[in-house]
Design brief:
The complex is a heterotrimer. By secondary structure, chain A is an all-alpha fold. Chain A has a single domain, classed as Formate dehydrogenase/DMSO reductase domain (Formate dehydrogenase/DMSO reductase fold). Chain A is about 75% helix and about 0% strand. The two termini of chain A are about 15 Å apart. The relative contact order of chain A is 0.16. Chain B has two domains: about 110 residues, no CATH class; about 210 residues, Alpha-Beta Plaits, CATH 3.30.70.20. Helices cover about 30% and strands about 10% of the residues of chain B. Chain B has twelve helices and eleven strands. By secondary structure, chain C is an alpha+beta fold. Chain C contains seven helices and six strands, in the order ααββααββααββα. Chain C has a two-stranded antiparallel sheet. In chain C, strands 3-4 form a two-stranded antiparallel sheet. The chains are: A mainly alpha, B alpha/beta, C alpha+beta. Chains A and C meet through α7 of A and α1 of C.
Chain lengths: ~400, ~375, ~210
């Protein structure tokens, strides 16, 4: 009963915290709300007329939505890069950033779920997937594995930080016996979510561009590069705009994580390029289309080459200690790395998997305004949720928000 | 049925006295449901029919208690829960409208029940017949015409196989036309299950350079033709990946889709190596006079937007002993269809005596569609 | 704490192992190839109850058995417009020319092989116009005219008997009914003209949406 009282008070106080802030904060939230409304308006078209309002066709049946979904699963998994050092390696430098990382994971996962629902042809019958009242094709379908691991990870990332914040809100210390097992589980689970998402594509023998052994490890490497890069940028913003203290050491250690992951990612890219282009087979057609264009169809060339350039630039900048420790260079490198990996995992992976089609036909994919609108709406939703969570967490962690009996 | 019973299930709070109160279940604060008085008898009959349709053999005994005291396993319990949800919610939605006619109420009830039914693969025969009845009735209410929909299961000792003679195909595309007409495919997007590829002689099976959009006199000099469609694999990758088991391989070898169960995730489309599956990106439309009214639940009945569909080897025809529309329509006899288990069938003779091959054999999908040449 | 942590790690590994082992996809009774499946399942083949008898329409059929294959083909003589031939061809051709009979099929051009191989008498029996004759002079009934074709086109004949050549009518269920050679090929001009396809797909150029 008492806990319920505290919970209700926490909700009330968080609402208080969320709705109060500086002018910048209100502008930011207003901007996000505007885009969310635009997204909802675009989605209403999609509900009305069906998915024909998007650019997807029988040939390229997964597009912008699933690209973003794939990328965001990686970002969510990257929270583990903060959790693991904190709880397993007991590195206190990371302790402050953990809650922010887990909040990012929650926001990213909600975005993932939103993208999946947006991509469905029949969102009103998604209850068909619920085991018991529907049919859940586990363990055959990798999609069901993905549903389990994503929802499990979401639950872990909501419950553990919630427990910690709940205790801190009451001015009490959180018990390690409660959250450490969960944290450890979430380390394995984070690897699992991105590996399972990779297996979704890796298991399709019909798509040779995806059907290779390196896809899963590549996903992990790029996730651990892009996710912490985003966290670095977010921590920088939080540092400058709130009273939350984050040491330089934390950011520098995170930067090291990003660097190593980015280097591994590049090595994997080189391995893939070698496999496709040293002795090209019929199965290399997709890679040809992506990197060089096929039969005059070159729509993806600017995307992938921008991505590779940014990726290589960022990795080089991060490799040099002097540049990495200079925060201006670091934030720039993180930003371009994030964009590069977003392109690479989205347009550079999902779309070329479908081109050329099963009988060699090339049909190019261009997202429509509606698709872009819904995508922006969902990204705004994620940013909105993250801001709410982060603000509350910061207020509690800095001691400003406490339970008043 | 007792008065008490009716009040419970149909939320028909008998307020003859206070028509303007808010005690009606539909939530109207004024006016109330004017349908209470004149429709009491019909609701009774209607309720019985609805219970019959949803709960099937478990005929309700007199009184609520006897129904609720029955011990049952979880599956039956779920069935009954769903049934009562259907009846109750449907009754709420129908009885709370003031202006709707009997027909539209029945239609609303049917739509409600259709929304919450289960996966066809798991239905008993009575449930299958019930859903077919509902669909036929729904079409009748909407258009005034009747359909002939069947839910016949796979026969024993039947495994369908298909062979395509590349030397005989001249690219006429009679098969494509017949398929579209037989299977009520969307006319707006010109959906076709069958693709005919025109390939140049001397280059082998070079699908990359084939043309499946030709429009000139056929057969063109120096070219040959071959058709592809769903190959009804015996190890179908599409069946493996469906998260809700909306697509499965029947005992007679046909890979079918339950259109009402599909959630539209399109994972199966990504998994199919043969471009066998089609998605309804928008609402499929067929002109009324061209609708083929001989339908099968798993075959050519009208689909809705956001669901997958594919060639079913014309299940509405093949399970009645007829050839699929493409086989029937081909004037050159390039398409051969039959029962692989019958040692005297033509398809078996082809497999045993002609040099047959299948596409993308290395993928391990075991398609039941062979190609051969004279 | 370390022991506890280790304990948790072990437990999670064990859990993963259990999940992985119980997720095996192969079911009982699955065959690795369709040919194995066909071989195994045909062992107990009892026949089907379906029949394509009703789909044959009103056409009269005759049953033939050639080389172990038994099937129905359409009866031919009832369909020939001018059968019996002897009603007009009672006298030799040169004598009919003078009489006042109506011209029937005087303009049949033979576009079949070449002049050295084919002329009217290759198939038609001048002594009995109601029947055809083989290369060795044996008579062949019009209902069994395929016996003429198989003298040269033995490969197509073999294919036709098996079911790989020609058009099957009715349905896939037994009894098998196929069209005979002359139902598709005009024996005087057996090849087929070019024609335009039945359909143009405007949508495929845009890719179906």
């Amino acid at each position: 009963m008492r806990r319920l009282k505290v919970f209700v008070s926490l909700i009330k106080d968080s609402l208080d915290v969320i709705t109060r802030g500086s002018k910048k904060y209100h502008l930011w939230m207003g901007f996000l709300t505007l885009f969310m409304l635009i997204g909802m308006y675009c989605y209403s078209f999609q509900l009305d007329e069906g998915l024909s309002v998007t650019g997807m066709t029988d040939r390229v049946s997964w597009g912008l939505y699933i690209s973003n979904f794939t990328f965001l699963v990686g970002v969510a998994a990257a929270a583990v890069m903060l959790v693991m050092p904190t709880y397993v390696l007991k590195d206190i430098d990371f302790k402050q950033a953990v809650l922010i990382g887990e909040g990012l994971a929650v926001a990213a996962l909600i975005m993932c779920l939103a993208f999946v629902v947006a991509d469905m042809g029949g969102p009103s019958v998604l209850w068909h997937m619920i085991p018991g009242i529907g049919v859940f094709n586990f363990p055959n379908s990798m999609l069901t594995w993905d549903v389990i691991v994503l929802n499990g990870y979401l639950f872990l990332n909501i419950s553990i930080p919630f427990y910690i914040l709940f205790r801190h809100y009451q001015g009490k210390k959180s018990k390690t016996s409660v959250y450490v097992p969960g944290a450890l589980l979430s380390v394995f689970w984070a690897v699992a979510i991105h590996l399972v998402t990779a297996f979704l594509y890796q298991g399709l023998q019909a798509r040779p561009f995806w059907n290779n052994a390196l896809l899963g490890p590549r996903f992990l490497a790029s996730a651990f590069a892009a996710g912490p890069a985003l966290i670095i940028i977010i921590l920088a913003i939080i540092r400058t705009n709130t009273a939350f203290k984050i040491d330089d050491k934390t950011i520098k250690k995170l930067a090291l994580v990003v660097t190593v992951a980015a280097q591994i990612n590049l090595i994997m890219l080189i391995s893939e390029l070698f496999k496709e282009f040293y002795a090209p087979t019929h199965h290399s057609e997709s890679a040809y289309y992506l990197f060089f264009g096929l039969n005059g169809k070159t729509a993806l060339l600017p995307w992938i080459w921008t991505s590779i350039t940014l990726n290589v630039t960022a990795t080089i900048i991060l490799t040099f200690h002097k540049l990495r420790n200079n925060f201006k260079f670091l934030f720039f490198a993180c930003f371009i790395l994030f964009v590069a990996i977003w392109i690479e995992k989205g347009f550079g992976l999902i779309v070329p998997g479908f081109i050329p089609g099963p009988y060699g036909k090339i049909a190019e994919y261009t997202p429509t305004i509606i698709e872009i609108g819904v995508t922006l709406g969902i990204w705004s939703l994620g940013a909105f949720i993250f801001t709410m969570l982060a603000k509350t967490a910061i207020e509690i962690e800095t001691g400003k928000l406490r339970y008043k009996k | 049925m007792s008065e008490k019973n009716k009040k419970w299930f149909s939320l028909n709070l008998n307020n003859n006295s206070n028509k303007t109160s808010t005690s009606c279940g539909c939530g109207k604060t004024s006016g109330g449901c004017k349908t209470h008085n004149q429709e009491e008898l019909d609701e009774n009959v209607f309720f019985n029919a609805a219970v019959d349709a949803s709960v099937g053999e478990q005929r309700p005994k007199d009184g609520i208690d006897q129904v609720f005291d029955v011990k049952m396993d979880r599956r039956t319990a779920f069935k009954k829960l769903t049934a009562s949800l259907l009846i109750g919610a449907g009754a709420v939605s129908t009885s709370c409208s003031t202006l709707a006619s009997d027909e539209s109420k029945e239609k609303a009830q049917i739509d409600w029940e259709e929304q919450f039914k289960g996966n066809y693969k798991l239905m008993s025969n009575e449930e299958k017949e019930a859903t077919v009845t509902r669909l036929v009735r729904s079409y009748q209410l909407r258009t005034g015409k009747t359909l002939n929909m069947s839910s016949v299961d796979a026969q024993k000792d039947v495994l369908y196989g298909y062979a395509f003679n590349i030397s005989k195909c001249q690219g006429y595309m009679d098969c494509v036309n017949a398929c579209v007409e037989e299977n009520n495919q969307d006319r707006n997007s010109q959906m076709q299950y069958i693709r005919i590829h025109e390939m140049k002689d001397g280059k082998g099976f070079n699908f990359n350079e084939s043309d499946d959009n030709y429009y000139h006199e056929v057969p063109a000099e120096g070219h040959f033709y071959m058709g592809t469609q769903c190959f009804h694999c015996d190890n179908p990758p599409c069946v493996e990946v469906c998260p809700v088991q909306a697509t499965w391989r029947e005992d007679d070898g046909l890979v079918v889709v339950d259109y009402d169960w599909c959630v539209g995730c399109r994972y199966c489309m990504a998994a199919c190596p043969y471009d066998g599956r089609r998605f309804n990106w928008s609402k499929p439309e067929v002109p009324e006079e061209q609708i083929n009214k001989n339908q099968h639940y798993l075959g050519n009945r009208m689909r809705k937007k956001g669901v997958m569909e594919k060639c079913t080897f014309c299940v509405q025809r093949s399970r009645a002993g007829k050839n699929p529309a493409c086989v029937e329509a081909c004037p050159t006899g390039a398409r051969i269809f039959g029962n692989l288990l019958d040692p005297n069938s033509t398809i078996r003779w082809v497999l045993e005596n002609k040099k047959v091959f299948r596409l993308k054999e290395d993928l391990g999908t075991e398609p039941k569609f062979w190609y051969f040449m004279d | 704490m370390n022991n506890k942590n280790q304990g948790y790690i072990f437990f999670s590994f064990f859990l993963i192992l259990v999940v992985a082992l119980t997720s095996c996809k192969h079911e009982e009774g699955e065959y690795h190839s369709i040919i194995d499946k066909i071989k195994n399942k045909s062992k107990n083949y009892h026949g089907v109850t379906l029949s394509s008898e009703s789909y044959l329409g009103d056409d009269k059929m005759i049953k033939i058995t050639e080389d172990g294959h038994t099937f129905l083909i359409p009866e031919r003589k009832g369909k020939l417009k001018s059968f019996k031939c002897s009603e007009c061809h009672s006298k030799p051709l040169s004598q009919i020319n003078d009489e006042d009979l109506k011209k029937a099929h005087w303009d049949i051009k033979i576009v079949h092989a070449n002049e050295k191989t084919m002329n009217c008498l290759t198939c038609h029996n001048s002594n009995n116009m109601d029947e055809l004759k083989s290369i060795t002079g044996k008579s062949i009934d019009f209902n069994r005219s395929y016996n003429l074709c198989n003298q040269c086109h033995t490969k197509q004949f073999d294919d036709w008997k098996g079911g790989a050549h020609g058009k099957r009518i009715g349905g896939w269920a037994p009894p098998r009914a196929s069209l005979s050679c002359v139902n598709c090929h005009n024996p005087h001009n057996p090849s087929f003209e070019k024609k335009w396809p039945e359909r143009y797909n405007s949508q495929k150029t845009k890719e179906r949406k």
